[in-house]
Amino acid sequence: MKFRSTTATPVLTRGAPNSAELVLEMMPRRAGGNDPDQSIYDINWEVYEIAGRMLIVDNPPSLTVEQDGQFGLYGGCNRFTGTLDAANGEFSMPGNFAGTKMACPEDQEKLEQDTIQALSEAVAYVINGTNLALRNAAGATVLRLRKLPE
Question: Which of 15, 25, 127, 144 places its Cα 20 to 30 Å from the Cα of 9?
């Protein structure tokens, strides 16, 4: 059995305490891990980890995918839209999509670029409860998102 924590818990940084209590969840056993009753669609997802790095930001990126594949992405400064493919655990972000081009602070611009890069590398997704993991062709998780409350 494998367990994991899916929540960022700052410790020893930015005034955080020097200890933490972690909530662990059991990882799914079956191949793919997708719950057939859950869907990537019509849910507001918030990014909390990119390429293994937990995000500690006030305004994280978010993603929404409609049933027809239309997506809305907030990257931390700019907003993007287009159509992607996400069915049966597979994920494919288009090479080109529309977006705003606002001047952003350097740290927000880097976060946005990292998010788009991770999305472009994703070829599969796994839903586990209120968490969504996007994986690359090697099976490594490149982006972790959590379902935002409605």
Answer: 127
The structure tokens listed for 106 are 């350097």
Q: What is the DSSP string of 80-114?
A: EEEE-EEETTEEE--S--EE------HHHHHHHHH
Alpha-carbon gap, residue 29 to 150, rounded angstroms: 29
83, 70 contact by CB (below 8 A): yes
Distance CA 67, CA 73 (A): 15
pTM of the model: 0.75
d(CA 41, CA 29): 23
**Helices and strands in the chain: count of H runs, count of E runs:** 1, 13
Query: What is the pLDDT averaged over residues 38-67?
Result: 93
**Structure confidence at residue 108 as a pLDDT band (50, 70, 90):** very high
Question: Nearest 10 degrees: CA dihedral of 149, 42, 147, 46?
Answer: -100
Alpha helices in 13-138, H assignment, sequence order:
106-121
**60/50 Cα distance (integer angstroms):** 11
